[in-house]
Amino acid sequence: MLRRVIICPIIFILMVGLSACSSQTVGGTREVCFYDQCIKAEVAQTPGKRGKGLQFRESLGKDEGMLFIFPSSHRQSFWMKDTFIPLDIIWMDSRKRVVFIIPNVLPCETEQCPVYTPDTAANYVLEVNAGITLELGLSVGDQAVF
Known about the structure:
This protein is an alpha+beta fold and 146 residues long. It is built from 3 helices and 9 strands; from the N terminus they run αββαββββββαβ. The chain has helices spanning 2-22, 47-52, 132-136, and strands spanning 29-34, 37-44, 64-74, 78-79, 87-92, 98-105, 115-116, 122-129, 144-145. The strands form 2 sheets. Strands 6-5-8-3-2-1-9 form a 7-stranded mixed β-sheet. A two-stranded antiparallel ribbon has the order 4-7. It starts with a helix and ends with a strand.
């Protein structure tokens, strides 16, 4: 009986500790929702993951994307070097409100790729398949939930 009493609190402490750590883990996926439509987004939170992004991917599921999380608000620039999928790029501020959208950004097929920079600062950037912003009727000022 004593053994069971000691083990239960230890398991409880481990479970609470793991759940507290999981909210701070880097990477994984998050649902990013606009209205009643959600995108399952792979999280790019480290400099390495943000730098690689969706490069070299040959496909992306219809309701999938990549959410870039930046530690501070800046005019976050993106390019399509080695990205094979046409994308819509959605920039969001610290309140998760859409501040800028560039739809249908095509893959770069040359060595010199254009750089896409918003007019305003953002903390989050969501890349989704081209056409999703039009399909959702997404516009500047819309609220994301994640």
